[in-house]
Each structure stands twice: as C-alpha cells, then as structure tokens.
Specification:
The longest helix has 14 residues, at 69-82. With 118 residues, the protein is α+β, with helices and mostly antiparallel strands. The chain has 2 helices and 9 strands. Strands 5, 6, 7, 8 and 9 form a 5-stranded mixed beta sheet that branches.
Length: 118
Amino acid sequence: MVLAADQPEALARFYGALLEQTPQRGFSDRHWQLQLPSAGLLEIYGPSRARPLPRQRGRLALCLRAEGGAERLEGWLAQALALGAGLLEPARHEPFGHEVWLQDPEGNALLLLCLSAP
C-alpha cells in the first residue's frame, strides 16, 4: 500500500503513532515505511516535483483495525485528532464494531475500526 504525501516524514510519524511503531526510512528522506499489523508495508513517499500528484477525494481509504470496541475507538480517535487528523463523520456503532471516518494530516481518507468481541 502506498500513500503519496507532501510531507512524507510527518505523515509517517502520524501513522507510526497510530500503529505504535517507529517509521523506517526507505529509499530516501522522502520515502518511509511502516509494517502493517496484518501483513505488508505501508509506504509513504513524496511524489517527484517533476510529476506532482494532486490531492483528490476518492473511494479508496486506508483502514486500521484493532480489537476493543467503543472504548478502544474513543482513545484511538482522540490520539488521531491530537496528531492532526480531521473528523469526517462522528463515530458510530455498527453490527461488527465501532468505526470513525477521518482525514489524515495530508487529507487522505482513513477509517479507524475497532471490532467487537465475538
């Protein structure tokens, strides 16, 4: 998974805090990596200044999942907002757990999902 960012190091620190890990420098100071909990890498990079990548709102979003229901979501939401995220919709309860839609500090859609105990 790859995210383009105007400030890749700052965005990597944002996701590093939410994932409780230290971002690792990738190929350059404009490329950072984080291990995703389920598998794979989240790669954050600064697009070439020769080929800028405009920000856009689409239907693709990053989803971070955790166990713990409403209490875990409340804490995670407060942390994300303190780190510079913006609230898109109020948190809500769904049959599978609790969720909240945010924008990360670069404007990318982000869903925080806390699953209910089975």
